[in-house]
Amino acid sequence: MDNSTVIELKHITKRFGSKVVANRDVSMDVKRGEILSVLGENGCGKTTLMNMIAGIYYPDEGQIFINGEEVQIHSPGDAFRYKIGMIHQHFKLIDVFSAAENVVLGITDEKYDLNEAKQRITAMAEKYGFHIDCDKKIHEMSVSEKQTVEIVKVLYRGADILILDEPTAVLTPQEIRKLFDVLRAMRSDGKSILIITHKLNEVMEISDRVAVLRKGEHIATVKTSETSESQLTEMMVGEKVELNIDRPLPVDPKTRLEIKGLTVTDITGIKVLDNINFEAKSGEILGIAGIAGSGQRELLEAITGLQKISEGTVTYYHPKKNKPVSFYHKSFKRVSELAAEGAFHTKDGAPVSFEGKSAKEIRDLVDEGEIIFNEDEVIDLRGKSPREIRELGIHLSFVPEDRLGMGLVGNMDIVDNMMLRSYKRGHSITLDRKSPSDLADKIIRELQVATPGSHTSVRKLSGGNVQKVLVGREIAAAPTVLMAAYPVRGLDINSSYMIYNLLTDQKKNGVAVIFVGEDLDVLLALCDRIMVVNGGKVTGTVDARTAKKDEIGLLMTKTEAEGEKA
Amino acid sequence: MVTFVVSAVSLAIVFLYGCLGETLMEKAGHLNLGIPGIMCLGTAGGCLGIALYQGMLSDPSKPSWILLILFSIFFSVIFSSFGGSIYALLTVSLRCNQNITGLALTTFGSGLTQLIMDKYVDRSYFDAAGKVISRGFVNNSDAPGILKALLSYGFFVYFGIVLALAATFVLNRTRVGLHLRSIGENPATADAAGINVTLYKYLTIIVGSSIAGLGGLFYTMDYLKGSWENASTIEAFGWMAIALVIFTLWKPNVSILGSIVFGGFYIAAFVLNGSSTQKELLKLLPYVITVVVLIFTSIVKKKGSQAPAALGLSYFREER
Question: Could you list the residue range(s) of the whole structural domain that residue A24 is in?
Fold first, then answer.
């Protein structure tokens, strides 16, 4: 078989905006009849690079050669002309159409004949060894079947170069094996296949060569047979970079959150979190590392009451030791029960007994602050509403892919966004605008938010400033547990450091901080402990002061391949 | 009984045209509440065409059948397309809210029609035109009932049924139909597949409006045989046609039967000897049934019998 070069990339650079460089000077090649894995961490630019080949993006600099000729790929249509097809992570299919209808959708240069199309699809299925039911509607299909339809769509249009963006992320191990068989069959037919992935065992299993990207740059392309998982991990994560982040030792850590056997199932019945156990302690930053979509989001949402918990417990130790009892979040009955259990003492240190006291007397005692907790109050967060959980001091500042998606309302100004958290506190029929306005000014001043004023719409601020507003608001509420997910995503280095310092300040104040991050260097420099999640499971917890970068990298990427192969 | 069927079927055709036009537009993702107004406009256009044609004749009381049909359809289509183009421009290109645009178009269309019909259309020979247009294949009153029930209608009845069957064929059996449906379901996917979403939407809205407009024309010239009171009845029938789209689950071939059911209820109100309350209740029935159908399909949640997924949503191509 001739293994000439089909795609050659030369010095490709792609920028988003003026600061973010997604790909820098990438040069690599793809050969006929090979499976090339494109490996890298989140945000290393692998999807961007592939999108440039598929015509979704257009490179700012550099050239693309197809079969030795320089080409300009401006649209997916152009890509098809060069026989390139991409299968995206999010399928572009019409739910109520059959497989065959979806495959022929948009083709105009041949006669519209579904029966003939079906025959061609079936012939293709036989050739490459997959199964497809042409008449089945997409909405009746499993994810794997939908993926097959996407692959057929690309093949039907005559693609010789297939790009698959994390094709295995949504598949079961059995389905993955089937997919790999199909890919191998296509390879022997002379097709070139590019797979974007970060699962090392799959890279080793399927690919002929591996191209490793790190932070937008092409590190190396190596033959799979001549490399090892640990060597690939090293290339992927790179040398440890020393970051100058202040990290004091935790002072008097006490357990604030205790998660036991936490399992969350999504609507399709798949376990997105599987038997998670950990503790978050006061005065400590717990880092959570993992490939995006490993369950980080669901974990935080489960704690804050936004996700339904299937199994397990989330226990919160409310820092109430030696503090007075109130009826806040507790019924009269509950207080009486706790008193009977001997959970309280009086101001003078004497044990509390409600026996012989009327309800009114007890209420007065509690309201006057005479009844004091012996220990931290233990609260089961399961079944509490998100608002109740917030008011207990558990705060989440979540920075999703689009920063405005969760937490802030883009069209409202900074003051109004502050009010989203405080509007319930008012006691008058009109809104209290004074204190949110003061808070907005304080955040703008202290976090140096670049904005014309506190009445500027949040959507007009730059990404970093939006994040400062978001994190600032959560910190201002004096939380006892602060969860920050990707708080520095897309920020420049100075803003990032400001956020790190904010989190460290909170830690010094005795807050239990949970930090979900992407950059391993940051996690290693900022956190006290790092918990690694992978496919909804905790694969390990390491001490951030002593852990090695590739150790975490392996925990993040290695799947329990042996155990799952049923 | 035969009289009842004949009246029911005749009236049904008014709903059928409106429903067909609306179905096509909804299949392309556009909920057009301007249908009542467009049906009025179609009436005005068609009547204007007929008046123009009759004005050219030396004896306006003896018009030619074929020329009447051609003139009325041609002008009706021009007027309805005008209404449809306004709607398309606002909702497709300018991405205005479809419901508000449609409602405004309905008010505009019925008002304009009232004006045109009262001031600018010479209706003096409409009786003659109505007689010619509504002429059926079987006209003698002593023909067998079955023949009368099937063949005693004018051209527009058969034309409507043929259009409905053709629409089903186009939607389900041709590439144009496939593309059209894909736009109503998921315009982003259609766009990614290289389909010209904007062009398809414009054409569908214009064709759909033209078909709907014929319903109003049919009502005035065939069903009422050329008499005109005001636009409000046609407007009311327009709303009925929109309800019928849901009732027929967005299927043009089903709409033939559905419209006859609706027509039947409406006619029954006049035929039955009941109190006025009962009659009004009977006229309400089509809407009640539509609500029941809507509830039923929502509960069953069978894909494929649901409204197009992108119905009522403006399509923005995602910025890259």
Answer: 5-237
